[in-house]
Design brief:
Strand order of the largest sheet: 6-7-8-3-9-10
CATH class: Alpha Beta
CATH superfamily: P-loop containing nucleotide triphosphate hydrolases
Number of domains: 1
CATH topology: Rossmann fold
Shape: globular
Order of helices and strands: EEEHEEHEHHHEHEHEEH
Distance between the termini: 25 Å
Amino acid sequence: MNSEPPLVELRSVSKSFGNVYAVQDVDFQVRRAEIVGLIGDNGAGKSTLIRIIAGVHEPDSGELYVRGRKIARWNAAKARDAKIETVYQDRALAEQQTIASNIFLGREVTGPLGMLKVREQHAEAEKLMRYLGFTSKVFAPDSVVGRLSGGERQGVAIARALYFKADLIILDEPTTALSLTESRKVLEFQLRAKEEGSSSIFITHTIAHAYDVADRLVIMDRGRIAGEFRRGDVDLEALIANLQAVARTGHLEAAR
């Protein structure tokens, strides 16, 4: 049994906006080198939950722990210091800049006099690109991001998180509007990140994508955790049936 504390843990966390509870009394955790698929309908609370973990929203109540230590006044700066990186749907990339520039954006490698170490940045970007699977010689560290496909742009965002040695990468709908081939590429990027020891939380509406890569699948409904499964304990058909049952009734069906 793994005695190591979770990388991130929420205990009885709630967050409301006005009179609406977006997240209510949620217990949630991610362990080291674990991929957690977070699934549920629109309005289930998934985005609010990851924004709490990313430090964008401060919870109204409950406790947050990082590597077993309770953290007070959690915010985005503390999340970054805790090696938590978030890749939102828009990827927050500068499309007119190069792959290397995007990977180091805001955290450029400089020398003693503040001069950019362009060659070092390019070498690191090249290494990350090839590791993640950018096999095409068409793309190089000085390729402009705006010319990349959607899946490749996701790869650049994940490469940035890996370079800064993120322990937890949060991916918000990374396969939205991507082709099957591009979606597969993003899923492979996640698995490569796991090989490097990074954990990830993967929000998606495409249940099969989550099932393909996640170690554990968590269903949210109306701000609460409705249920969770380890992938080996439930087949895809049963997972979909449970998700549909939760949407209808708020309760799980029996796994099969």
